[in-house]
Amino acid sequence: MESKTYYSKKLILMLAAASVITLCGCGSKSGSEEIKQPENVIEFETPEVTAVTPEPAKDEKPEETTEPAEQTGREDGERFEETIILEGMEETVKYEHVKDTALGFEMDYDYESFTRQKEADCEKFISVYDDPEDPQNYLTISHVPESADLAEEAVSTELSETYEVIRENRTLEKAGSCVVIDASADKGGETMPDRLQAVYIIPAGSGSIVARANYVAEAAEGFGRRFSYMLDTLSVTGQTETGKITKEQAVEAIKKYCLANNPDLEAISGSDEHTVYWDASLSDSGEIVVLYRSYTGAQIRYYINPETGEAYTTELVPGIIDEEQKTDETLNVNDYLK
């Protein structure tokens, strides 16, 4: 019994000595190193490492941010159906696609409600209930060379002579940002005129698309909304047939031509003693016809090719020459344009 007790005590002493040696070995490292080690471990385990996770590549973003704008690809005259909201009610309308490369735009119009009338310098959409020669409710779309700012000023100045105008910025669904000049009050803003206008000035490259919505006061809600829906389908495509002369340009050029040939004409045309005017129309063959009514009573007509500017003239003098007679006079109106 004594021997077993002796050996047990000896074993306890040996283990205690080993523990002391081990503790001494660990204690050979400095206290600062003992603190750094757990700090390093914590640093690696911190969740902040997720902050450096690379962002997804662009092609991994939601599709709506990378998809190109929708393209209809419709041809001029193509027909289809759409649904619009009028007076809080859904209405199915039958649209026809318009593609005008000369003016540089595409648009859809309600062909059951409007008749499309294509002219040399504009597209016109007239209510089917109106007289085409004297329409009350219609939309015209033209292209002007002036910038949007200059076109806006010109239209505002013109309408301000009769209306109290209000300008506002608007975003069309396809054409984007534009300015709308609202003319729905008489000058002074106290009464509403019989006929209203809303003119959209849409930037188109170095020029502008000018869309004029005309409607009578009692039809403003119906036609105004229809015109608004139509213009939301308008997109600017750019002109591919450039250089065509408009009726306005033709009148301007012929005026300059007449004044150059007769410097006294400017004073005569501004006098109440004589009847002098210039007017433009289209012939069946697509020529622009500018009528110059002279102070002598003679009617000189200039037949102008809108693509080349080449022109010839005819003369008619009531009571003397009662039928148009072609003269030897020719010119090119491009020589008299700005």
What's a concise summary of this model?
With 338 residues, the protein is an alpha+beta fold.
Q: What is the topological layout?
A:
Elements: H1 2-26, H2 31-45, E1 79-86, E2 89-100, E3 105-110, E4 114-118, E5 122-127, E6 138-144, H3 148-160, E7 163-172, E8 176-186, E9 195-204, E10 207-216, H4 220-232, E11 235-236, H5 247-261, H6 265-269, E12 277-282, E13 288-293, E14 299-304, E15 310-317, E16 321-332
Antiparallel strand pairs: 1-2, 2-3, 3-11, 4-5, 5-6, 6-10, 7-8, 8-9, 9-10, 12-13, 13-14, 14-15, 15-16
The number of distinct β-strands equals 16
Q: In DSSP terms, counting alpha (H) and pi (I) runs of 4 or more, how many helices?
A: 6
In what range is the share of β-strand residues? 35-45%
Please provide the ordered H/E string of secondary-structure elements.
HHEEEEEEHEEEEHEHHEEEEE
Radius of gyration equals 41 Å
Strand order of the largest sheet: 4-5-6-10-9-8-7
Shape label: globular
